[in-house]
Amino acid sequence: MKSLKFKPELIELILDGSKRTTWRLFDDKNLEVGDEFEIINSETKENCGIGVIQDIKIKKLKDMDDTDFEGHEKYPNPEIKLIRLKELYGDKVNLDTIVKIIKFGLLSSKF
C-alpha cells in the first residue's frame, strides 16, 4: 500500500474532516485515482489512518486557482506558497513546477 506523510498539525485536520486535499510535487509514487494510502505522521512515522484518492488534477504552480485550495490550508499570497513549497521540496521548485492536486477521503482512522 502507498503512504503519504503529513505534518502532525495536518493529521489533526485530516481526522476532523477539514483537510481533504493535498498537493504533491515530483510524484515518485505514481499516485492515481482509487489508490488507498496510509496517512503517516511525518514526525513520529505513526500510521494514523487510511485514505483513498478520489480525484487528481495536474497543473503548474502558477496556474493554480481558488478551487485548488478547497480542503487545503491557505497561504496569504502566492509568494508565501512558493516559499513554503521550497521548504518542503527544495530550491528546484518554481512557478513552472508541476503539482498534483489530490482530493481524498478518509476510509479509517487509528484514533
From TrEMBL:
<dbReference type="InterPro" id="IPR015947">
    <property type="entry name" value="PUA-like_sf"/>
</dbReference>
<dbReference type="Pfam" id="PF04266">
    <property type="entry name" value="ASCH"/>
</dbReference>
<dbReference type="InterPro" id="IPR007374">
    <property type="entry name" value="ASCH_domain"/>
</dbReference>
<feature type="domain" description="ASCH">
    <location>
        <begin position="4"/>
        <end position="89"/>
    </location>
</feature>
<protein>
    <recommendedName>
        <fullName>ASCH domain-containing protein</fullName>
    </recommendedName>
</protein>
